[in-house]
Write a structure and sequence with these properties.
By secondary structure, the protein is mainly α. It has a domain of 184 residues. The chain is built from 21 helices and 12 strands. The strands form 6 sheets. A two-stranded antiparallel ribbon has the order 1-3. Strands 2-10 form a two-stranded antiparallel ribbon. A hairpin with a 5-residue loop joins strand 4 and strand 5. Helix 6 runs antiparallel to helix 7, helix 7 runs parallel beside helix 9 and helix 15 packs antiparallel against helix 16. It is globular. The relative contact order is 0.13.
């Protein structure tokens, strides 16, 4: 038993109507009495509540490829991906529907909170902590609903026997929902332990997890989508209350800053740094990589234990080179373009022409043309082979080499010998099927080179649902935006993240950032895209920032995969990739039609 997520799950009611999935049958009372009479059964019930947490790695496939962060090669057959990418989804679509499942989790959490005190085999302190865990989980499920749908019906803290949502109700306001979630998380944090010392229970929530989620919730509320967005003005529920804030409130940024600082002030977490020796670049690469590969390291605040990493390893490994590899998790060219240059610390591409050609910052030191002979990958310290590298891949910062597998590079896993990767036509890593690599890159960060995946030894993950680098960037963003702008702390905490990557301070790379709130915002967007790449942030970030129409809409570009020569394969082209469609209604998901049919007064989201 590694953690509570691996305990047996007590199944919830598998019923579909809103009244049914939010209640339990009175006849089950004896079952509840038996369940909460024994410690083991009580722990299993709580494990069942944990089990409602979505698998963050599965969400990669659902969300990452539908924004400007990534592209999935299996775009020829995945209906879920195709419909989302093209905008062909609507209230009848079931692929993205989480409404009823989250409310089931909310119901189970409430039942646990009400009944755990019956257990006489559990100490009062343990019951207090377990109750706080369930309170956190209930708040987390509400957050996931709001992140996807905006304001929802707020069940609140009613006794479970009263948790029957009348079909005539409508959604509560966004601020009511967020206030409740924030209050519950702060309440839970008071009774949760600061750390988990028993390794068998790694994955259980802590005080830091509750405070960190609170910081994320309040940050989302402060961002433009949920803070006076014009598109939601005038939308009222059946009681005449505006579902969304009707004007911008800068004070919400101050609330987000206070919440993030509360996590930092715990002094419990640190940015992970490697114990390996080598060049500064090598150590920076390893430090970033080990956030995934060192289980339960000091940076992880809330994690999910993954007993086998085969799901992501197969999708991030090159087809044709690694046995049973799918080669589908491809970073977008926009993501690849964003990684800074190691020497200058500047982000090389400032924008794009209408034909997809990059607008290059001349001060960055980046080159989009030419090649460097005898290039040695700085991530492979012990490997002697070199190769001819396109200049776009030369001189980049540590996270680039930790994350990006590019054409001509050697594969990081050497259990079956050294293998050079070629993505162009006729290359050893390019399928002749319709589902082939279309960007010219794979996201290598998900694959641990220490694991012999050729022999199906996939390794394990403690997947970072929340980690300290995110909290630092949350705090920096809030400090920059709050009414009394705290530039000193905004710079300090974005620089902590950059320093771990081996970069100079952002004010050294961009002296003009001092006193420039807008430039800081632009650069923080880039820093966050890089640091948190493929960790299920970008999809939600570009929506809550309301920049999706500019960065995740229209043609997408990659490298020339039809080229018969290595040199020509580096040409930019939009030929292979489907354009992505973003419309205003896509900021939020539609509430499913089946839900609307039952709850006649439920207000649908804008545009649906």
């Amino acid at each position: 038993m590694k953690n509570i997520l691996k305990l047996l799950v007590i199944s919830c009611l598998s019923l579909s109507s809103c009244n049914e999935y939010l209640t339990h049958d009175v006849d089950q009372q004896l079952t509840f009495e038996k369940t909460f009479a024994r410690r083991e059964q009580t722990e299993r019930f709580l494990a069942g509540v944990y089990a409602y947490i979505p698998n963050d790695m599965i969400l990669l496939e659902n969300m990452t490829g539908n924004n400007d962060e990534g592209y999935f090669m299996w775009d020829s057959w995945s209906v879920k991906y195709l419909n989302h990418n093209s905008g062909a989804w609507n209230p009848t679509s079931t692929d993205y529907h989480i409404w009823d499942n989250m409310y089931r989790g909310i119901n189970q959490a409430t039942i646990f909170i009400e009944n755990v005190d019956r257990n006489e085999e559990v100490t009062e302190q343990s019951k207090k902590e377990m109750k706080a865990e369930a309170r956190f989980l209930r708040a987390y499920f509400y957050f996931l609903l709001i992140r996807q749908y905006g304001p929802v019906y707020l069940w609140g803290d009613k006794p479970s026997e009263l948790n029957i949502i009348p079909t005539e109700v409508d959604r509560h306001t966004l601020d009511e929902c967020v206030d409740f979630i924030s209050s519950e998380l702060r309440r839970a944090s008071e009774d949760l332990p600061l750390t988990i010392s028993d390794t068998r229970w790694y994955g259980r929530v802590t005080k830091g997890a509750a405070l960190s989620l609170n910081a994320r919730v309040l940050l989302y509320r402060a961002r433009p989508l949920f803070n006076g967005a014009n598109i939601y003005k005038g939308i009222q529920n059946k009681d005449g209350n505006f579902l969304f804030p009707q004007q911008y409130d800068a004070a919400k940024w101050a609330d987000a800053a206070v919440a993030a600082k509360a996590v930092i002030d715990l002094n419990t977490y640190n940015l992970h740094t490697t114990k390996k020796t080598g060049t500064d670049m090598y150590k920076a690469i390893q430090s970033y990589s080990e956030v995934l590969f060192e289980p339960w390291n000091e940076e992880i605040i809330l994690g999910q234990w993954v007993a086998s990493a085969d799901y992501v390893d197969r999708r991030a490994s090159p087809w044709g080179v690694v046995s049973t590899a799918y080669g589908g998790f491809s970073p977008s060219l926009r993501l690849v373009d964003t990684y800074p240059m190691a020497s200058s610390g500047r982000y090389p591409v400032t924008g794009y022409l209408t034909n997809g050609e990059p607008i290059i910052d001349p001060l960055s030191g980046y080159s989009e043309t030419g090649f460097t002979e005898n290039f040695r990958n700085p991530a492979d310290l012990t490997v002697t082979h070199t190769f001819k590298a396109h200049n776009s891949t030369v001189g980049r910062e540590a996270r680039f080499y930790a994350s990006i597998l590019f054409n001509g590079m050697y594969w990081i896993n050497t259990f079956k010998g050294s293998k050079q990767i070629f993505f162009q036509k006729g290359g050893n890593a390019q399928s002749t099927q319709s589902d082939y690599n279309k960007t010219g890159y794979l996201f290598r960060r998900l694959v641990n080179p220490a694991n012999d995946i050729e022999s199906s030894r996939w390794g394990k993950f403690s997947w970072p649902v929340i980690r300290l680098a995110e909290v630092y960037l949350n705090y920096a963003e809030a400090c920059n935006e709050q009414p009394n702008r705290d530039e000193a702390n905004a710079l300090l905490y974005i620089n902590k993240v950059r320093e771990r990557a081996g970069l100079n301070k952002i004010e050294e790379a961009y002296p003009e950032i001092i006193g420039n709130k807008e430039l800081f915002r632009t650069l923080l967007y880039k820093e966050r895209m890089i640091e948190l790449a493929f960790e299920n942030h970008r999809y939600w970030d570009i929506r809550t920032w309301m920049i999706a129409p500019e960065v995740s809409n229209g043609d997408r570009y990659g490298r020339n995969q039809d080229a018969t020569t290595y040199e020509n394969s580096w040409q930019r082209t939009k030929h292979y990739m489907l354009p992505i469609v973003f419309r205003t209604e896509h900021y939020l998901f539609p509430i499913q039609q089946a839900q609307l049919n039952e709850m006649k007064n439920l207000t649908q989201n804008y545009g649906w």
